[in-house]
Structure formats: structure tokens, C-alpha cells
Amino acid sequence: MTLFNDTELFATGLAGKKVFDIPDSELILIDNFFTKEESDRFYERLLRKTKWREYEMEIYDKVYTVPRMISWYEDKDNPGADPNGPDWNYELLTIRGRVEKETQLDFNSVLLNLYRDGNDGVGWHSDKEHNTGPNPVIASVTFGETRMFRLRHKFSKEIPQVEIPLHHGSFLLMSGTTNSFWQHQVPKTARDVLPRINLTFRQTHRSL
Ligand SMILES: O=C(O)CCC(=O)C(=O)O
Ligand SMILES: [Fe+2]
Asked: What ipTM describes this predicted complex?
């Protein structure tokens, strides 16, 4: 599945910050948020060090294994956090530090997704979970293969879908009402693609 010397094949986008002008959404993309060298190193180390696991989801009484590997890290002192969860490693702490510096926000948890090849993806959903509130701030970082990130408005068919290629080392910030008005997906692809790692930093606050 994985060749560690693949990183030379990964291309970062052109450097720069793009603020999307789309309705009911606050969406900012920074390509090259991490340099190519940093991104190659994070990709290799996260691939190797992360406690990847399969994840089963129950939909209408049927259990499905999602087509990707995941891992969840959360500060142990956050109320309701799993005391036996994995500890943040150096790479995760470094990436979180950079994201927090850019956003001037604190994130106490991160979901990692590993898309092993084109058969892996994530279907249409919003990140509106009970434990992040209705308008969560989601800070998304990508390493490895470029995959498409698509958004569609939940209530208006007239508003066109948005398609954003998320490159090696990119940073996408979703805030405001993005998650209550839009859904997103990473479609599967028939192209022969290398693995992609995505990290979504979150502010988890459970109401106990
Ligand atoms: O892989 C991505 O870019 C998105 C992942 C995602 O939507 C999620 O984990 O909720
Ligand atoms: Fe999501």
C-alpha cells in the first residue's frame, strides 16, 4: 500500500491565501501552509506513527466499515475524553501549534483520516456533531495525495457546488455557518492515487 519514498510525487499548490466568496459560509484556503519539506516529513511520520484503525458506522441497524482509516486524539483533561486514548505525538503537537497560531483559536482534539487509495473517501456529511455545537470551527490540514474536497449547499439547489483540490501541505478553515448550511465530501476516484492524510482539528465540548 505505502511506499515511504513516494513523497517526491506530491505537489503542493501555489502559495497563497484564498478567501472563498460563497453564501452562508466562511471558508479560507491556504496552500503551502506547510513547506514541501515539512509536509513530506509530516506525511511520512504520521503515516508510520499514527494508531490507524478501522471505523464501523451504524446506519439503520446495519453496520458499515467506512472506506478509510481513522484515528482520534484529544486532550486528556477535556471533560469526557477517553483516558486510554493515544497521546499527542511531536508531529501532532507541532501541526496543532501552527494551526492555533494562524487562527488564534484553541483546538483540543483532532480526527485523522487516511485515504489509502482511490477506493477510500468520505460521503456527503456536515461536521455538525453534538459535541462540537451547530457551528463548529474545523481546521483541516492535508498531507500526501491531492484529493477533491466538494461542498454542496443543503437548502438551495441553485447555489453551485464548490470543488477544492486539497494539496500536500494545505490548510482549509471552515467556520461561521459553513457546517450548518453546507455538506462536504471527498469522493472516491478511479485515478491511481497514492495515500492522503487529512487532519481536522476540532473544539470538542461535551455537555455532560
Ligand atoms: O478528508 C477531508 O478532507 C475531509 C474529512 C472530513 O470531512 C471529516 O473528517 O469530517
Ligand atoms: Fe467532515
From this structure: 0.99
